[in-house]
Queue: 2 jobs
Job 1
Amino acid sequence: MINMGRLWAIAVLVGGCNFALPGPTDPNGPPMIDGATPPVDTATPDTSAADAPPAGATTTDHVATADTYLASPQPDTNFSGDHFVIADGNPIGIVLMQFDLTVLAGTSVSNVELHMFTDFDPGAEVQAFPLMEAWSETEATFNQRANGVAWSTAGAAPPSRGTAAIATFTPSPQFTEFVVPFDTATVAGWVVAPSANFGFAIASVNADGPRFVSREGAEGTRPFLRITHTP
């Protein structure tokens, strides 16, 4: 005769053993149960290495080698001797600036910053555009890029300059250095093909335009490009 009480006891014992052991402990949360999906690591990856300059990179500063400005109220006047340059929307003032980068021939450019200094007259947003025509620092005026040679459009407007901005910034307040991200591809192109380096124009659509210190200004406040490059 079967002992029903004994069978009941065995069934309870076996049933009581039907559970899963805890999995390994997650240091950032509760124990995981077997079969459960481990928690996903949502920590932000370290990307600082991606922002670092290439191995062997060098950063050098290059002061402007030519600059002036064009003024619509005085369309036949050259201002290359002034210690400042003006970018304005009304009346129109256009800054011209160029940097000799032949010393970088054979290098690969990875980053560029434009450093500009305001004087006592800061202003609203301005943009830089690559110049598409050669010009003379001591001869350029609103009407002419050199003596007897007119701009394709007066004031170095397109197509005398490009239409895509290579830098944008708001130069305010006064007596301040502005560090402006500058289009790397444009400068890299100048390094590869120096004959295509006509520099750039700084223009504003705002009547409250700024004055910048020119290359004739005090040492330490002259405009320069800070360029990171590798051999």
Job 2
Amino acid sequence: MLSRAAMVAGVVLVLWLSELLPLYATTMVLWVGCVLLLSPLDAGNFALPRVLSTAASPVMALFFGGFALSVAGSKYGIDGFIAGWMVRLSGGTRAGLLLTIMVGTAVLSMWMSNIAAGAMMVATLRPLFGRAEDQSAESDGGAFRRALLLGVAFAADFGGIGTPIGTGPNLIAIGAVEDRLRITFLQWMLFGVPTAALMIGVTFGLLVWLHGVRGRVRAAHDMEPRSLDRKGWLVVAIFCCAVAGWLTEPLHRVPAALVALAIAASLFGTRLLDTSDLAKLEWDTLLLVAGGLTLGHLFDASGLAVATASAVDWHALHPTIFLFALLLACAFISAIASNTAASAMLIQIALGIAPSPSTAVLVALGASMGVPFVISTPPNSMVYGKGGLSSRDFFVPGIGLMVLGCAVLTLAGPTVLRWVGIP
């Protein structure tokens, strides 16, 4: 059993890390491999219905509802409305604009995909970028443009830490420990939002220092806040109901996944979203998250996680050093490959060594720290494509943020998580 499980897991991880196949296609390879190779040995855990049941996990329903809200926000201009107000609130200073844009991008990234949040903010700032592009890359305007682009990318990367639906690794962690502890939306945010805020604050300070952000800027007319129509405000009301339902889960006891399904049903049932919008949902990401959950089931049910963990005497390491090494490994793998794949693999190995829910949460957050390369995240690649940035512009602040983020999670994470009820 262990040899077959290791073979399936190894093939899947190579495909995920090398991207020889599309990431979502690798999930299908994983399903086929589990059923063909493992169900003859353990039909209870690896029969086709059991393997496919991971795709019907409450975690998947939660992500589906979040994607539906994201599509509705883009369709009715809510993302542009928020971005426009962020620009207006900047106070006319370059540092103020950078900070408000980063905060706005991060807030959007908590509720929609990081690439959507970043792309929308870049589109809002395009008039400003156009003026800066006319100046030398070494000029004051060119440096400010680089700071803004990097600020959008890093804020989109770190913003997903704040909520369970912000990024795939978060839901992988919740799914990995749901049989031991049900982590509520509010519990996650009590830890995730301050962590995201800390990382964004440090990033802002670094960018101001590295790029000499100072002086004033005049926002262009087409950067003013856009108006919303009646349907746009209706989507805002539904969004507010969703957030209220998620945050008050400890009071009404309705699972966050059920709230997400109800929100999706209301969006499609009221025809705010239609069949064409259904096709815009990020089905590839949903399949990738399903693959991460399936890989976790493979590691757990086959005993591979325990066997991998017991192959080394981890207890010889100090617990703090072990946790830091684990988070740094997850961040580095995420920096060069899929963060969902990295977290799916390392969360299960970590739980085999330190079987506490907080370990899974910290490893998932470690995946979001992998930001030092152009290829590390879609927002990084997107802003790099706008021109004027070099690999060094990402690496210099990114490597420091990666190490600092992992260190903060290692030193403060376990204590704070215990305080919010995640042991």
